[in-house]
């Protein structure tokens, strides 16, 4: 069509414009769908449906989707192997094998029966369909990583079972594919196939670690290391395809082999995750959506029936396998839910099987897997990804909650406090040092760490001199309180990176920084440095604005959000504020919900029983205006916040800067971001099905149905 004199034709076939439009989808889809509480994975697939030939026919599914999509598949399996706790995996290998057999045999049995009795398919077609149910993809694994549960035995068991069932399912696919290629699938075929697979396993496990060790010792260049790792991933995938298996299995093995060479918290790991999350995985998800023909589900009754049967059988069989594993090993219900959530998603091997089966033409001229199965498979992938992401999200939240409520005491007792104070403004040094000394344990012998960071791009002798003076001033202030300080002057790419690197090098547990001063109207409340720091570390960050000396404060008023007690750093900041209150001789007044207040009282009574405390109910956290009458100019107003993705995070936190600057401009302020489980997330992760809080929509729907049925029971 003609638009402003330009020739624009749909679908777009020019590679430049295809790539541009895909990037636009990747950029804006999470912004739009995040407001609707739709998981990122599902959002990318739905976007693919809309722009594909069965939607508005905007994009042509060219070879780029095949290339980048395959890389995205490899990334998912590779990262799953890369982030595993190998020691725990070895301990639970037997359980993983048992679960793998259950999650393969049960879907196979139910799949063959349902395909033959409900869908009237032949034996070979039914076996291939059943193998598609048996395989699964760890597409919800980034949820586990973000919650810091990757080292749980449940996760290790599920990953081990995934390897087993994927191998067996792909062997079924190889056998059926060989039958229609004219190969003899007798005993010799099985022996050769098994021999090739075992030989390749041995080759990857024996040679790849030795090659990797030599390379990482010889070359330290970041780009070369990144390219080397990618080369190993595709080498494993390519070799696996050579022996008749799917490359995703080779990518998973490469991840296991490179596990010890790529630390989870390292620049190399960040680069690997960044490239996958920014480009390859979204490309794969959009490509999956582009092959979905939603219209056929409503125009052809058989297609809808096939989709329903496939989704129900696949989901129920995976749940049954998780339930049996739970009963055999005496696991908790939350562990069963986690196993089910991780193992329910169908994507990689399922897509491979249906596409290969769709291309096979039988002797009667029909396809082994017809169009109904193709469309039903993609619908099954869509729904199983939704169920998987929601189930994994809920199970991970419950598991973290249980661990935090039972394990916070031990963690806080064992951990040695080490507080870092970045110094830049000489006027705030005394207040920050005083606050740090009041919060730390009185018997703590570890010195404070004072840091001055000089940006490499703006380095000068003047800045170095100013940094040294600030450090000397900090040491003098601490010495006056009979405290020791370790002074650190370093050059780095930027201030935030310098703080993060120092935090890791000195095993810092807490960071106390001054509140950023806005320099112009476009500047944010916290400033870019503080925002980058919050994204770059999961350690506790305390941001202070002191309008008067700490020792002149009369009261500490603490606003605590709902579910703050479930954060791993809950006990730490409660105890630290109580220490400050005792040293200052002032009252600590907590405002929170009833449930949170109950946990606050328990911590105070157990840890700091002789602190002057008050507890008041704060039902409406969304508007801190309710506390303006409680905070005076000589009070310290403490706001307990949370990072995005944490359990206690609320969307109302986004209004926190404007509320604080408007209502509490004349009060001393302390904003606390508690310790958080998992690893810092610096990017929007499209391999993270959670988004931020998408499951709240499903929770609300569930609560509505529960109330509705409950009212019906009362009427009866």
TrEMBL record:
Organism from which the protein derives: Phocaeicola massiliensis B84634 = Timone 84634 = DSM 17679 = JCM 13223
| Subcellular localization, as worded in the UniProt entry | Membrane
Q: Which InterPro entries match?
A: Cation/H_exchanger_TM, Na+/solute_symporter_sf, Rossmann-like_a/b/a_fold
A Gene Ontology biological process in which this protein takes part is: proton transmembrane transport
Q: Does the keyword NAD apply?
A: no
Instruction: Spell out the GO cellular component terms annotated for this protein, sorted alphabetically and separated by semicolons.
Output: membrane
Q: What is its main location?
A: membrane
Q: Name any one GO molecular function.
A: antiporter activity
Q: Does the keyword Mitochondrion apply?
A: no
Enumerate the spans annotated as Cation/H+ exchanger transmembrane domain.
24-392
- The identity of this protein, by name, is Cation/H+ exchanger transmembrane domain-containing protein
Query: Any transmembrane segments, and where?
Result: 16-34, 41-59, 65-84, 96-115, 121-143, 155-176, 188-207, 219-236, 242-262, 274-292, 304-325, 337-361, 373-392
Instruction: Please provide the record's keywords in A-Z order.
Output: Antiport, Ion transport, Membrane, Transmembrane, Transmembrane helix, Transport
- UniProt membrane topology term: Multi-pass membrane protein
